[in-house]
Design brief:
The chain is an alpha/beta fold. The chain is 31% helix and 20% strand. The protein is built from eleven helices and 16 strands. The protein is elongated and about 70 Å long. Bound molecules: NADP nicotinamide-adenine-dinucleotide phosphate. Pfam families: KR (PF08659).
Length: 420
């Protein structure tokens, strides 16, 4: 799971990155110099008649050695080889005013935009798809920022925006930025949608910004637009901008140990599915004795067959339960109590429905199909079955094209991690 960058406790790895201004006088220790070189003009030398126009100075970091890609096979048992996490790196401050590049800047939101916009920027409140499409053709916009109001409805507006921009081959829009307020979870899907759009339309830069302090929102958006090589930004309480970098996981040891208790119950939503069955097998091998599978359909014969052996080691029951329905999850909870099964200490949430599609083939209704089982299901399971003695909650994300759900679950997980 990606780390919460705001958590400045033991897991915080934010570091300062400084920019060095180039100097034309290079002072380099020859003994350290590699064979690379750079041409530099120097005011003193150029004033001398005999001095060459250019001077070659070897730079120590410019080595001519080309490293061949490693042929060493990756050790699949060594997690340090393959697990990465996000590190947020702070950038030098860009000032509190948004800088103005060339172009026409549009800011849209479902709410009224109460910000003092600089010249060249226009803010428009949008409520429906037709209105949005009309606004987009009103002017030759080059940059569009969308201010989220923190609700699921914002994801719908973002989908309309991306579909309209993607469809219009004459559009001059080259950058789109979604701004979400720190702590909101219902609009986390904006980050997923923008990642999907980025893959499908690499020629249009889609950026995401999470901000903490509205005072610095405009300058943060301005900095996003300026840094067209970056995709994701965080603006902290003081308006400092951070960008994400990948690095190898550092705390793998603590995340690999999973031993289960025989006096606890474990829940697997979507337990009849492919991954659900893998999870049952794993939980039994790790010592679980009470396992409940949740599924909308009744026991399938092939699943029944697979459970024969596992049932010799553990009590495994299937409950008919649609996890997207709160009442069904409450029913599962009541069943556990009635049967006097031990307290739930772990949930593996694999329930999910495939609702795949490219950006142009998506609709808010289609997105809702997968969202209900994944995100609403995750919320209900957490609300009604997780408690203080809880041990783990493993959420399985959906396929990449529905990154909206994955991002929302990621946000939920970060909140719940702090809660537990
Ligand atoms: N398999 C992979 O390689 C892979 C890779 C990446 C992500 N995933 C994700 O991981 C999840 C599980 O994958 P899978 O391959 O095991 O899928 P699967 O075989 O289709 O199983 C999904 C299970 O979820 C259950 N389900 C769906 N909606 C439900 C609901 N509202 N309440 C309760 N149960 C529900 C379905 O059973 P009923 O129809 O009986 O309810 C089904 O058994 C999916 O979300 C998938 O997108 C899978």
């Amino acid at each position: 799971m990606l780390m919460s960058w705001w958590n400045l406790g033991k897991k915080s790895h934010t570091r300062e990155t400084t920019t060095k201004v180039a100097n034309s006088n290079f002072e380099v220790d020859a003994s350290e110099a590699g064979s690379g070189f750079v041409s530099s003009t120097n005011s003193q030398e150029s004033s001398s008649a005999n001095a060459p126009l250019f001077r070659s100075v070897s730079l120590p970091w410019n080595k001519s050695v080309i490293t061949e890609p490693s042929t060493k096979p990756v050790d699949k048992n060594d997690l340090t080889e393959s697990l990465f996490e996000t590190e947020w790196v702070s950038l030098p401050s860009g000032g509190s005013e948004p800088s103005l590049g060339l172009g026409s800047y549009l800011i849209i939101s479902r709410d009224a935009i109460n910000l003092e916009l600089p010249q060249g920027w226009q803010g428009i409140q949008v409520s429906d798809k037709k209105e949005l499409e009309a606004i987009l053709t009103q002017k030759a916009w080059t940059h569009v920022a969308m201010l989220s109001t923190g609700h699921e409805e914002d994801v719908k507006l973002a989908l309309w925006l991306l579909q309209a921009v993607g469809r219009n081959t004459d559009s001059r829009i080259k950058q789109i930025c979604f701004a979400t307020k720190f702590g909101s979870t219902d609009d986390a899907g904006l980050w997923g949608l923008s990642r999907t759009f980025r893959l499908e339309y690499p020629e249009i830069r889609t950026q995401c910004l999470e901000y903490k302090n509205t005072q610095y929102l405009l300058s943060a958006i301005g900095q996003c637009f300026e840094r067209s090589e970056e995709d994701e930004f965080l603006s902290d309480q003081n308006g400092k901008i951070h960008v994400s970098r990948l690095r190898r996981c550092t705390d793998i040891e603590s995340s690999t140990k999973l031993s289960l208790r025989g006096d606890a119950s474990y829940i697997i939503s979507g337990g009849q599915g492919a991954l659900g069955l893998v999870a049952v097998d794993l939980l039994v091998r790790r010592g679980a004795k009470y396992i409940v599978l949740l599924s909308r359909s009744s026991m399938k014969p092939e699943v029944e067959d697979k459970l024969i052996n596992l049932r010799k080691h553990a009590n495994i029951e299937l409950l008919s339960c649609d996890v997207s329905q709160e009442v069904d999850v409450l029913y599962a909870k009541a069943w556990l109590e009635r049967k006097k099964w031990p307290a739930v200490r772990g949930i593996v949430h694999t329930a999910g429905v495939l609702s795949d599609g490219t950006i142009q083939n998506q609709s808010s209704e289609k997105l809702q199909v997968s969202y209900s089982a994944k995100v609403n299901g995750a919320r209900y399971l957490h609300t009604h079955l997780c408690h203080q003695t809880f041990y783990f909650y493993f959420l399985l994300p959906l396929q990449p094209s529905v990154l909206r759900d994955r991002e929302t679950m990621q946000q939920l997980m970060q909140h719940w991690t702090h809660w537990h």
